[in-house]
Amino acid sequence: MLSQDLTGKTALIGGSTQGIGLASAQAMAAMGARCILISRNEEKLKAAVKTLRAISGQQHHYLVADYANPEQVGAVITEFLKDNTVHILVNNSGGPAGGPVTKATPAEFLSAFNQHLICNHIITQLVAEGMKREGYGRVINIISTSVKIPLKDLGVSNTIRGAVASWAKTMANELGQFGITVNNVLPGATSTERLDTILTNKSAKTGKGREEVEQEMMGEIPARRFGKPEEIAAMVAFLASPAASYVNGTSIPVDGGRTGSI
User: Fold this and answer.
1) 175-200: string of b/e by CB count within 10 Å (b at 16+)?
2) CA within 20 to 30 Å of 242's CA: 18, 109, 183, 200, which one?
3) Which domains does the chain have, with CATH numbers?
4) Residue 97: predicted pLDDT
């Protein structure tokens, strides 16, 4: 059986003070990885690092950077890489605000494009050289099932997520020869702060009670419930491991069966 041990590997995880990002870091730490969390809130980062296990004595750490500022992100990662190699990169950042695409402004598209695709690209370019030297690399992008079927009232998100998926597939084609895989994890409705915001906004917009909105959404999911961050993280951890060495260029929904495509 191929190993899922991550001892000796360093993982860099974006948006990792809560939700799927933090759950992914916790899962990989439990598999032996040294985890480097990156987010804009230092106090939350300090608290998040304390939740990570150190089963092999690994020293977890954090970096402070705001994905709204790609240049800052690039500078912080460049400095870190002077003395470190990243073997696993989890590109993850909060989703764009909801709303119909016909109401979206150019500024909203540009902001989301910078936060998601441009930051993903900058970080991946920077860490890829070390991955090539090590002959081991995993780039895992947390995006959305909207790359399969666009979701209602998430116009900017649908657009940007699709761009990230195409970028990732292209990157996978170019990096595969170096022992580096690039894959996308597509979470469905997962119990995070973002889902809470979506439910609240939908309730206000439709005039329906919060519980009714939740029940309607869960009714669209064959599993009849929302996902848990740790369930998404389990897929991330697998893709990060040696056991997933021949999985490359894929977009994998983890959504309880909600996505309507094969």
Assistant:
1) beebebbbbbbbbbbbebebbeebbe
2) 18
3) 10-188+230-252 (3.40.50.720), 189-226 (no CATH)
4) 85
CB neighbourhood size of 173 (10 A): 12
Measuring CA to CA, how many Å separate 28 from each of 10, 149, 152, 154, 246?
10, 29, 33, 30, 19
**Integer CA distances (angstroms), 66 to 13, 41, 83, 116, 235, in order:** 13, 8, 22, 12, 26
pTM of the model: 0.95
Tens digits of per-residue pLDDT, 168-192?
999 999 999 999 999 999 999 999 8
Confirm if 155 and 103 have CB atoms less than 8 A apart. Answer: yes
Token representation of residue 112: 């989301």
Selection from 233, 157, 231, 141 nearest residue 197 by Cα:
157
- Express each pLDDT in 211-237 by its tens digit: 898 999 899 999 999 999 999 999 999
- Looking at residue 5, what is its pLDDT? 95
